[in-house]
Amino acid sequence: MIIIAELNGILPAVRDMKDFEKLLTSDHEYIIFLESRLSQIKSLVNYSKRNNKKVLVHADLIQGLKTDDYGVEFIFREIKPDGIVSTRGNVISLAKQHDILAVQRMFAVDSHALENTIQIINRVKPDYIEIMPGIIPALITEVSDRTGIPVIAGGLIRTDAEVQRAYDSGAKAISTSDKALWGL
């Protein structure tokens, strides 16, 4: 069993390759890859690791990959990220079985979705929960209290004050593709 990494601070989420190049020379330890293609993700992960970066890949957003058991196994064996982000319980379960850092992404659209996702979280026990949108302080506190799992706030966070409110509500880290917040 590996020791699970402690995620904290700003976690830059990359959508644009121009941003990726800038992150390679930054002080950020982790990079999250969003919206990648199957044909490019392995080389991006390898390049990142050669530049001493740890990589989380959003499995659900790899174009050309089905996130069934075989697709997830391909991610672990061929792409070799340091962690996985997914909304799917099966992906999180497989990551846990392979000692890969597992981040369960949760979309808080209504109370029914919240309850369903918390049931999944309590069953699969991810290492972290990423709450989307991350601008609802009471939700960050509630999910953290109900699950006992560290929370990452992500989505619609646009200002330094929103970042601080997320931290004040118990978020351990902030995931963002907003370059203006990467320097915080």
From TrEMBL:
Keyword Transcription regulation carried by entry: yes
Record's keyword terms, sorted: Glycerol metabolism, RNA-binding, Transcription, Transcription regulation
Gene Ontology MF term list: RNA binding; transcription antitermination factor activity, RNA binding
Classification via InterPro entries: Aldolase_TIM, GlpP
Keyword Cytoplasm attributed: no
Any one of the GO BP annotations: positive regulation of DNA-templated transcription
Pfam families: G3P_antiterm
Gene3D superfamilies attached to this UniProt entry: Aldolase class I
Chain segments annotated as coiled-coil in the UniProt record: none
Job of this protein: Regulates expression of the glpD operon. In the presence of glycerol 3-phosphate (G3P) causes antitermination of transcription of glpD at the inverted repeat of the leader region to enhance its transcription. Binds and stabilizes glpD leader mRNA.
Protein name: Glycerol uptake operon antiterminator regulatory protein
The organism's taxonomic lineage, starting at the top: Bacteria, Bacillati, Bacillota, Bacilli, Bacillales
The gene coding this protein: glpP
